[in-house]
Each structure stands twice: as structure tokens, then as C-alpha cells.
Amino acid sequence: MHKHPQSPRMLRWRPAAAALATAVAASAFLAVPSAQANEPADPPAAEQMPAPTPGFPLPTEHTQEAFDPASDFTSKWTRADAKQIMAQSDPTVAPGENSMSPDVTMPEIPEDFPTMNEDVWVWDTWSLTDENANQISYKGWDVIFSLVADRHAGYGFDQRHWNARIGYFFRKTNADPAKDKWNYGGHVFADGASIGNTEWSGSTRLMQGNHVNVFYTATTFYDIAERNAGGGGIAPDASIAKALGKIHADENGVTFDGFDHTNLLEPDGEMYQTKEQNPGFAFRDPYTFADPAHPGKTFMVFEGNTGGTRGEYECKPEDLGYRPGDANAESVDEVNSSGAYYQTANVGLAVADNKDLTKWSFLPPILSANCVNDQTERPQIFIQNEGGKNKYYLFTISHQFTYAAGMRGPDGVYGFVGDGVRSDYQPMNNSGLALGSPTDLNLPSESPEAPTPNQNGRQFQAYSHYVQPGGLVQSFIDNVNGVRGGSLSPTVKINFRDGISQVDRSFGQDGLGPFGYLPTNLRVGGEGHYK
């Protein structure tokens, strides 16, 4: 487990003690059962959910009960739930301070953060994994994948989205994370090979032997030049795709080739909103996994929006989630009159119809945030053994500026816990917030490129969090007190159990571990050239 690595600015680290777990014996195939839960993260100090706050509504009651993955039950992240974020925020802090509990606040990133790579901006990042979220060392190399864009192409950091490609980095498994930089391997796919002209986030799974499946969002922009010049606005197309290829490793590093691309899913307009229904629709970020409760099946979670024409949704009592007679509840009419119906995020679910993972079928969403938030990006299912029982954690990320009217929350990672992949999910900490950038929730929100005056200078310090085994959380740097990012953040650690989370400030230096720390916990393909 991760305990106390030294300061990220010091040269010496404890390479063995900082590892996630003892490496599994090398094999040409994955050396774990096809269905297993992760070892539990360290428990938080708190043993109970936060107590109710006077003057705020009570959170919705959730049972965590599991349902068949193919059933039509969709859990609700309700307004009553999300109101707990403000209920747990301090209204008396000085303007520009952090108003949230330290238990759910990422430590401050220093302004003099290192540049990960001089040639590309780096943002959304994930590891080479298997179907159980193990992070794979392949023949002695750790491998990660990131969205990248050219720093020297003439467009700015905020124009990176429509210039995004999937790149990859590698370094020796026994590297010192404090001083050994990641080696940039370039783009995973050859120019023009992917479906669409822009590649957005996904996940990468090692299959048998040296085969890899890269699941990604195939996005097609029709006005890239105009957007790079500050204009544009034609809505892009998006679908979920995968590419099956091969990974190679030798003493010089890691390479990929032989990719065959397959388009997997496009939004259906009923459960998942289409471009025609909403030019700002979300349909992206595929993450695949095996479920111990359903051996032989492969599932995928992804970000979506509730099907239907934008602006026609009507908020319902179950979206609000207030308990009968709650004196602090909003009325349905009040919420609808605020325009909260424009926010219709959900987390979608699909199931593979064949072992090649080339054919998939939609299932109903497992979570909706209707009238609460418009984005539930990069969802993950993380299965953790707690007291001999598998608990399913659904982690997702969201922005403060995508909340519905009357709601407030920071940029960060949000979590929900249940007894199965389809559950009546209990929001972590009663609110859903598991880790946010330092933010003064008493002040209004804007965006990273136009921060609110007098707001905490680190409200957008990090985004696109990726939860790893053992509670490590990786993200990328966006805006640290006016200094723009494009590099990986220091890794932090959250301790969580029973739906309660707490930032581990004994990890690293005051809670900040090494920059770009994504350690592996499973060795595959032999020890390679490095031991």
C-alpha cells in the first residue's frame, strides 16, 4: 500500500514501499483470475457519513441495493444529494480561501510545477490495465496513455481539445518517480488511421499475449482551423470506437503497431442524447471491465446525456430527491423555472455481445444527474472488497461550471457506492464529492480560461482525475493561480471505505506525492530487461 513517500522535490524515494502491492509472478498471460475485486484502500478516520446541517435539506435515502445490469433501474444523483456539498462548506471563510473540508480537498499544487514534456500538452491520462483495473507492467516497462496536443503548432492551450491525439509514455518499472521522467513514445495510432479526426479519452486493456485493445472516443470536428483561430462552432460528431493492436517492448522501450479500428457505439437518441438533439451532447470516455457477479461478460461505462431534445426535459420529483415534509426542499415548479432542466448528465452502460469486443448493446444508464449537472466525465467502476463483500464504486469527474441552477460544487472527482454495477448508488460522503480542487463555494464559478475574480487561485488547479488501486488519484494541471498547465499533477491518495473518503495528508509531502505517479501492481510478459 502507499504510505509515506518522500517529498516530490527530494531526489530519494522508497521505490519498494511506494509500490501498490507486491508484483505478481511474471507470465505470458494475465496472472489473475478473470473476476476479482481490488484490495481495499486504507480506511478513513471517519466511520460515519457527515451529519445533517441545519438549514439544508436532508440527502436522498439510497439503499445501495443491486439490480440486474439489464434492468431499467437508474440511480439518481439528486439535488438533495448535491445540496450536501454546500451544506458541508464553510460560509464564513475569507473570500478566496477554500471553503470545503480538508477531507475532500486536494492539497495545493505549487506554481513551479515541472513540465512533463516540452513538445506536447498532456491532459486526460490512464494506465495500461486489465479487466479488473490492475495496472500493468509489461516486460519491465510501465505504460500510460494521455491526450496530447502540439505545444508548438500555433494554437493555444485551450484549443487543445479539437487537436487531441492519444499519445503514450513509458518508463522502467523500477524508476524513481521523483527524478526519472516519463519517456514520450509519440501517438499510439498512425496519422489518419483512427475513426474521426480527433481522439478523445478512453481506456486501454492488455489482452492475451501482446494484444491491446484501445477503447477511445472518435470525435470529428468540421471546423478545426476556424476553432484554432478563435472562431468556429460547428458541432462535432462523436462515437465510441476501439482499436486492436500489438504492444512490443525491448531494451529501448515500448512501441505499438498493427491497429485495426472498429466503430462500436453511436448514441441512440432514446437513452443517450444525439448531436441532433443537442449540439453540445456528451458521448465519450469508454471504460471496460469484468464484473465478478456476472462471469464471462464484459461491460462498459461511458459519459452520456439523457436522450431527448435539449430544453424539453422536465425535472421530476425523483430528480430532486427530497424527503416528504422536508422544510428545506425546493418545489418541482421552482426548479423547472430556474432552467435546471438543461443539465441532463448520465453514466451509460453497455455490454459486449461477443468475445472479440467488437459488438456491443446499450443498457439503460446506471446513474442520472438530471437537473443537477451536465457532465459526468470519464466514469470508472472500481470494485473493492470490504469486509468480505464486493462494493462497487462508480467514480466520475465534473466541473463546477456544469452544475444546474441553484447547485454548487468544485471541479473534481465524484463517487458513488453500491452492491453491484447497477445499484441504488449512495453518493460518497452523502454529497458525491470525493476530491475537489481548492475552491471558495461562496463565490460564483466560471471556467479555467476565465477564472472568477477574488476566487481561490487554485479552483482549477487539477482535473480529469483517474482513481487507481489503493486510492491513488492522478489528474492533470490546468490553472494554478494563473499559471496554465498541460502536465500531470502530483498524485494524491484518498482513503475510502463504506462510502466515506478522506484525503491522506500523510502521503508524500503534506498529501502531494510524485508528479505523474501511476505505479503498476501487476507484472506481465516476464521481467524484461529491468528488475
From TrEMBL:
Its EC number is 2.4.1.10. The keyword Metal-binding applies. Ca(2+) binds at D285, D374. Gene3D superfamilies: Glycosyl hydrolase domain, family 43 (2.115.10.20). Residues 1-37 form the signal peptide. One of its GO terms (biological process) is carbohydrate utilization. Residues 35-64, 428-456 are annotated as: Disordered. One of its GO terms (molecular function) is metal ion binding. Its cofactor is Ca(2+). The active site is at D124, E377. It comes from the Bacteria. Keywords: Calcium, Glycosyltransferase, Metal-binding, Signal, Transferase. The record marks D285 as: Transition state stabilizer. The keyword Metal-binding applies. It is an enzyme of class 2 (transferase). Substrate binds at W123, S201, Q375, T376, E377. Belongs to the glycosyl hydrolase 68 family. This is Levansucrase. The lineage of its organism: Bacteria, Bacillati, Actinomycetota, Actinomycetes, Micrococcales.
